[in-house]
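The data are passed on as follows:
___
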Amino acid sequence: MIEKFSMDMNEFLPLREVVYNTLRKAILKGEFQPGERLMEITLANRLGVSRTPVREAMRQLENEGLVLMIPRKGAQVAKITRQEMTDVLEVRKSLEILAVEKACERISASQKEELKVREEEFKKVLLSDDITAIAEADEAFHEVIYRATGNRRLIQLLSNLREQMYRFRVEYLKNKDSWELLIDEHRRIVEALVTDDRATARDLTAQHIDNQQSAIDKLLEENDSNDALI
């Protein structure tokens, strides 16, 4: 799988940061599976770097909880636990509700049109069965709402949280039974924003997050009795 990776070189960042960003993105997008071993020498060879920046990247990823260092075994991708999911979704729910309330107050006519476009694009990309593309289309839909708040600090917080949510979003979207519900939720959220129905927008957003948590929680129960998704 690593042979598909290409590093986004940035002349303003040290090599260790470029390697870190590359591996972090791969883990968050599910290109490395939870529990999968990460061999330093293999990663270094595939990325065309020495083992030093890979080792440094592993330390950073361990600090974030994305990688576990196992004695005598090395590094492996951390599993997705129920507690981790709950922690992230609790924060996301509060911020998403705040965002949709502010968006109702401040969304422009052009942003309303863009939101409708993103809603349609999400429905179309579902036909591709490309989970990465579907997840990105879902993110693009929510990004319009974030920008409509006009609150740069809130946008920053949600953007950072969005990266942490990526693993959960991918697992949720793998279940095709959830797609029709997502389409309906997006449609109703758009209607509420367009008509400045703040109470409905807030309630729909809360339910949107709750539904996602329930679905992922069910996956966790089905796949691992030790509260981890393998």
Observations:
- The chain has a mean pLDDT of 88.
- The chain is about 70% helix and 5% strand.
- Strands lie at 37-38, 67-70, 74-77, 80-81, 228-229.
